[in-house]
Design brief:
With 203 residues, the protein is mainly alpha-helical. Helix content is 46%, strand content 3%. Among the domains are: 36 residues; 35 residues, no CATH class. The model has no long low-confidence stretch (mean pLDDT 79).
Length: 203
């Protein structure tokens, strides 16, 4: 490897003998030694800094936690081994699971909860029920309410005088909705299809 610097004045570029087919000069060991020394120094300094910062953080945490007691000491539970399962304990756990207050952990992404909610809504929408028995208020099915509404009509609001429309304005028109705005979930549709298949099989 040429050791001269062509940019320096007074130095002419040397002719390279390529007849040997390899570099006749050796690699400079000093550069490698300097690099490894700097790397080792950096690793050592970083390790000392990390250790010191860890000690400071642990001291601060221990100061906030207060003095150690038997309730905060770590206990090795490995000598206890695997505890045998108790049927009585399992029964109590099952009872606690059944009586656990809501909201409970959902195991089916809430599909059954939504289906139960829609079933309760259907009971209110499709059947008669009391709202306030003392005042004689009754909730009627929605189909009957729609029939009464079609017979009696809606109360007419008093007419309101409108100012003349400006250029480019138009009267707003309320479009009739294509659906009632209520749709069953895929889970409920699958359950309904399964019930139809079971009913057809029983026949």
């Amino acid at each position: 490897m040429p050791t001269h610097k062509p940019d320096e004045p007074g130095h002419e570029p040397e002719e390279v003998d390529a007849s040997k087919g390899y570099e006749p000069t050796d690699v400079r060991i000093s550069g490698i030694v300097v690099f490894l020394t700097a790397l080792a120094t950096f690793v050592a300094v970083a390790g000392v800094l990390a250790y010191g910062i860890g000690k400071v953080i642990n001291a601060h945490m221990l100061k906030e936690d207060g003095p150690r007691t038997k309730w905060t000491s770590t206990v090795d539970v490995r000598p206890l081994g695997n505890l045998p399962s108790s049927p009585e304990l399992q029964n109590k756990l099952a009872q606690m699971t059944q009586t656990f207050p809501t909201p409970r952990l959902q195991t089916d992404d809430g599909n059954q909860d939504i289906a139960d909610l829609h079933a309760r809504e259907d009971l209110l929408l499709d059947n008669y029920s009391w709202i306030d028995r003392s005042q004689g208020k009754v909730r009627i099915p929605i189909d009957r309410a729609m029939e009464l509404l079609a017979q009696r009509g809606l109360p007419v609001a008093p007419t309101v005088e409108h100012t003349p429309l400006l250029t480019g304005d138009y009267e707003p028109v309320a479009a009739r909705p294509l659906t009632s705005g209520f749709a069953r979930t895929g889970y409920e549709l699958d359950q309904a299809a399964a019930r139809k298949v079971e009913a057809g099989g029983q026949k």
